[in-house]
Specification:
51% helix, single chain, 2 domains, 3-stranded mixed β-sheet, 5 helices, Dna Ligase, domain 1
Length: 157
């Protein structure tokens, strides 16, 4: 049973990676941008790892996989991926940008630990609060961001 679930998950990840590559191809063509192997290597690495990362971590992943991408190319590619809606940027701490895959779009919030680790969560009560605010104030909530800064409690032995 576990083997089937792992295989299904791998198949879904392959499908997602194919879809984001197609979206990048379309975006580059529409924008008149060059289709370079480095751009697709960066995109593939981001979606292979998933989760949050900073530029240094992404550089390390690329180096570990034997892919040579300059820092300038990496920054330019990240900008293009953000424009294409394939990567999202977060500014959790002063001067420390974090990124995450942006497709498919899904609403979630963040807990940022004092060691830099980022935890994601989704709580339906937050969506209820947004609906209540919309009704009470006669507004339409377009977007929200909730960042909770925390540290782990010492373990009790």
């Amino acid at each position: 049973m576990l083997s089937r679930k792992v295989h299904q998950n791998e198949a879904r990840m392959d499908e997602l990676r194919s879809e984001v590559c197609k979206r990048l191809e379309d975006f580059l063509e529409k924008g008149g941008h060059r289709r370079t192997p480095e751009r697709f290597a960066v995109l593939d690495m981001i979606y292979a790892h998933g989760g949050h990362f900073d530029i240094d971590r992404l550089m390390a992943w690329l180096a570990e996989s034997g892919r040579k991408v300059s820092r300038a190319t990496l920054y330019n590619t990240i900008e293009l991926l953000m424009e294409a809606g394939l990567v999202r940027k977060h500014q959790f701490e002063e001067g420390n940008s974090q990124f995450e895959p942006g497709y498919p779009a899904r609403q979630h919030d963040h807990i940022i630990l004092d060691n830099g680790e980022v935890l994601e969560f989704c709580d339906p009560r937050i969506h209820q609060i947004k609906r209540t605010l919309e009704e009470h104030f006669g507004i339409e909530v377009l977007h929200h961001a909730l960042h909770i800064y925390a540290r782990r409690k010492p373990s009790k032995k």
